[in-house]
Design a protein that fits this description.
It holds the Pfam family TLD. This is Oxidation resistance protein 1. Belongs to the OXR1 family. It is found in: Mitochondrion. The chain contains 10 helices and 15 strands. 24% of the residues lie in helices and 23% in strands. It folds into 2 domains: 132 residues, no CATH class; 193 residues, no CATH class. The strands form 2 sheets. Strands 5, 6, 7, 8, 9, 10, 11, 12, 13, 14 and 15 form an 11-stranded mixed sheet that branches. Strands 1-2-4-3 form a 4-stranded antiparallel sheet. It is of the alpha+beta class and 365 residues long.
Length: 365
Amino acid sequence: MQRRYSGEPLACVSATVVECRPTPGPPADENDCHSLQRRSSLSSRASSAFDIYTFPLAAESSLARNEFEAAPAPLSPRLGAQPPQTAPAVLARASFSVPASLVMDLRKYSGGSAGSRSCSQESLPPSLSSASDASGEHDTAGAAREAMDTPLPRAQAPAPAPPPRQQSRPVQLLARDASTPKALTEAIAAQLRLALPVQQRLAKSWRLVYSMDQHGISMNTMLERCAGEKALVLAIKDTSNRVFGAFLNETLRLSPTFYGQGTSLLWKAFRSSPQSRKKDAVKCFKYSGENEYFILCDPGFVAIGGGRGKFGLWFKDDFLHGSTAHCPTFNNQPLCLDPAHPKNADPDAQQEFTVGHLELWGFDA
């Protein structure tokens, strides 16, 4: 049973259109029937839903007007039978929307040339042409919007180079004669300065206050030269060429009790490895908070740090004998021992030394 549909053509690609008719009926004119040629190169899906025919170019103008007084009926290619000769004079037209996918399929089946696509688009009715254009515009707008929403890949900036390691500023050691033995060197002073309070760290230079070689071996002379100083660095070099000492936040003065504050510290310099004999490393021992035994200056000795009957650093008024031990004030190691010495781990360790040279340094603003 065949059904013929009459209405607006779905598409016209060159001379190819799709015609749908809702009411059956024979063609009004037999000559029009012979002017239709069935096209069999379409897909099974399209041919199963519609009958698609090829119209002469003369018939396109009448189809584009969407007005049919007597619509021709298709010939049956399989049966070859002639359709009946009676038909209603005017057939009702059915209006409906066509999926854009079907139009795209028809364009693909028509050959895909640029000329055929432009011709088919111009031959479509306004409703279908606008629908297909809207679909194309929607796809184009969606693709454009998606491209706009997609962020462009940014060129990755090269990773910033790590800041150069800040080199310690050399310390100027003033007022020491060239022939005087050196207990404190510029290299040790530059490392020690990093552990000092801000005021002493910003000092422009260090000035020699007392030296055994330049000023003589005398406790009174040492105390006289230290008068008026706000802070001091004590440096001792023993007969084994080990250098150690203390930072005193107050000057040396005679006192029957301990005095000073928690910015005082003990330090020792040592060779970081047996191969690096020209460069010494400095290790500082700061205030532990356990007691307040910072500075003790007696006419017979000088002591820095204490507790449990021992001193962190002690030397006699003859500037020859001295000792160093672990003390609770600074929780320090014996200063005249190398860091790898086994006695450093002993909390009761105490080591005696012989003073080779002793210096005291003040700070210039």
